[in-house]
Specification:
With 201 residues, the chain is mainly α. It is 71% helix and 0% strand.
Length: 201
């Protein structure tokens, strides 16, 4: 974690702002705008990119990916510019938690993968690129989105240490734990060999 230089009040403010940004359910917004129905009643009912893809619209899925990643990056970059690195990490963490546990949806949100990648890109772009490439490689080999997500999340702290971003490694490890918790059902299906492949409804 970075050295804490901001006051508790400033950190709290950016934590609230980060949570607010992260809790915007872009997957639901995009599917409604595209006229694809209620995302909660499609596929797994999750609000993330993978479930949006199950609507059959690659454009909607791509837009959801960009927006969910972008809200995490925006929280980090705004806080860094206006307050400092400690505030950026606080805002990023809460943006991630806002996506996973949005108050507006009864704390039942997404699984955090796109937001995780957006955060990593904004916090330390070499780490973010490495995590994105790891996701692509794992997903391409397995043809399973959740496998890519799990491998990428697990690699975040490792990449941060290898690339010299030790302060980011602690946050990356914490986010990875939440990603794995949010993917508990996917992990069970992976073990059972019943996890859907990319593009499968």
């Amino acid at each position: 974690m970075p050295v804490l230089e901001s006051s508790a009040a400033v950190l709290f403010l950016w934590a609230v702002i980060g949570y607010g940004l992260g809790s915007v359910p872009f997957g639901m917004v995009v599917t409604m705008i595209f006229g694809l129905g209620n995302l909660r009643e499609i596929g797994s009912g999750n609000i993330g990119t993978t479930n949006v893809l199950r609507t059959g619209s690659k454009a909607a899925a791509a837009l959801t990916l960009l927006l969910d990643g972008g809200k995490g990056a925006a929280a980090v970059l705004l806080a860094r510019f206006l307050a400092g690195e400690d505030a950026a990490q606080a805002a990023g963490l809460m943006a991630f938690l806002g996506h996973c546990f949005p108050v507006w949806l009864g704390f039942k949100g997404g699984k955090g993968v796109a937001t995780f990648l957006g955060l990593m890109l904004a916090l330390a772009w070499p780490v973010g690129i490495a995590c994105c490439l790891t996701w692509l490689a794992a997903a391409a080999v397995s043809r399973i989105s959740s496998m890519g997500a799990l491998v990428s999340a697990a690699s975040g702290a490792v990449w941060a240490m290898l690339l010299g971003y030790q302060p980011v490694a602690v946050l990356a490890a914490l986010l990875a734990v939440v990603v794995y918790i949010r993917h508990s059902a996917n992990i069970a299906r992976l073990r059972a060999g019943t996890e859907p492949r990319i593009g499968q409804k």
